[in-house]
């Protein structure tokens, strides 16, 4: 019997994350969504994870997406690994070299991309939340410039950063930036660092992710 996942009203990437986690544990799932973007994202997930896919339109703009796992759990998990991450994140690796160092994520702004700040805020929340789904998880996260605002007490991504820290991520928060924005008593994730440590961490990265 298929397990039903209700992802209506949820923003990207939450529906595809919920679908991925569910299909890893169940042979058949039904995902309820209410927008075309979620349908397309889950369609691509099904292709990568070798799952049967079908969608049925319901009243009120609701779509019932049926996923059926056709391979073993190990095969499904393997299909949702590195190739799936290529679509979620841009990874800069030195040409002609093998990535042997740590996975380092650089958060240089409290928004993602240029243009509308409201959209940028939504995107950075989704990006940081998606980091929790990566395997392997980031080894180090660097926050500098206005990116340090993501690590403060009232940050919308604070819970995700704290969870990443619990999972072993070393979060470096630029001390110069913290002082500039007068946030010394507000940092609630990671630890205050300096430019030498930040530069050294970036130089030694095997993979460097920049949203």
Molecular structure report:
The structure is a single chain. With 211 residues, this protein is an alpha/beta fold. The protein has 2 domains: 3-84, Translation Initiation Factor IF3, CATH 3.30.110.40; 89-209, DsrEFH-like (Hypothetical Protein Ychn, Chain: A, 3-Layer(aba) Sandwich), CATH 3.40.1260.10. 37% of the residues lie in helices and 22% in strands. The protein has helices at 14-25, 36-48, 73-79, 82-88, 117-131, 158-166, 175-180, 195-203; strands spanning 3-6, 28-33, 51-57, 63-69, 91-92, 103-107, 140-143, 170-174, 191-193, 207-209. It has a 6-stranded mixed sheet. It has a 4-stranded mixed sheet with strand order 1-2-4-3, with helices on one face. The longest helix is centred in the middle third of the chain and has 15 residues, at 117-131. It is elongated, with a radius of gyration of 19 Å. It starts with a strand and ends with a strand.
